[in-house]
Design goal:
Length: 354
Amino acid sequence: MSHPVIKNETPFFHQALFVNDEDMRPLVVNVVKATFRIQPEAVGPLIPLTEQPPLNLEGEYFQDPGISSCLYEPECSPRKLATDVVLIADAVAPRAGLTQFDVSVQVGHLSKSARIFGDRVWVCDGKRCSISSPSVIERIPLVYENAFGGEDSHYETEYGQAFDSRNPVGKGFHHKDSPSVSGSVLPNIEDPASLIEGYFSVPPVTGFGFISPNWQSRIDLAGTYDEEWDENRKPLLPNDFNVQFYNAASPGLISSPYLVGGERVVINNASDIPQLSFQLPILPRPLIHTVLNNGKESYVEAVLDTVIINTKTMLLNVIYRGRETLSRGPLDVSDIKVSMEGMGVSSHLHSVAS
């Protein structure tokens, strides 16, 4: 039996993913990814790119996986219960000569801010430590490497060097039993509402990007892989697996209910424009019409579950996802048609720009 016939009537990229759910039931997950150029001087709605990029199924890290933070998560999640909002950006000082300033992003009802500091170190005299004056800062990547976390090279446990499991790639973490070391660096990115007060402070990890799947805030949702699971449930996911695991945005940037499009975006000091403002595109929700080989038909409306704002490339990705359970798998499906009311390919291409 041949592969399904897929007809994409939208001007955006579509891909049908045949995966399994938490209980290994086969699914077809239809993903529509729309990419727009952010044009701060433009009036009116954002304009989609002529060449729409495909899904990033492998994901991407800033450097090597395991030793750096996640730039793009794999876009093959079977579902998300809420909308992830991610900002990929540099913090940019609004004027010269500053040693600290704030960055903020607002998308609809979501908002998050961070305080950006120039480089600082601990100055210690015995057990008394103080923070040096920050250096002048002009620009720094908003990555978890510059936020609180990382390893304590001066304290080793039976499993290796102590580290902050919330953000293993950050800086500034000190185990409570380690010595105070003058010259130890502090993070450049902090939560303005919970700034570092002492050498052994453990403040919140503040970031705007994707959380890696093996970091604490997500691994705690992944379930228990113990002897009982190994003997009685493997290869299924554990019974206590929480589907919130699939949401990978930073705390404070996950929207429930889902965003719908049209929300106002305001970004301060995280691009070459001190305040960047635009509106998320207002798009009809993709309608997925699936025809099975047994003749049954179904209609599923996809939801907007991922928004990626990249002010370094000035691109916006909005990702819609809709899923349907199958009996056996891909061979169940005869045809898939994806449409957006009023947005046929031929009628819309005249307005797109590269």
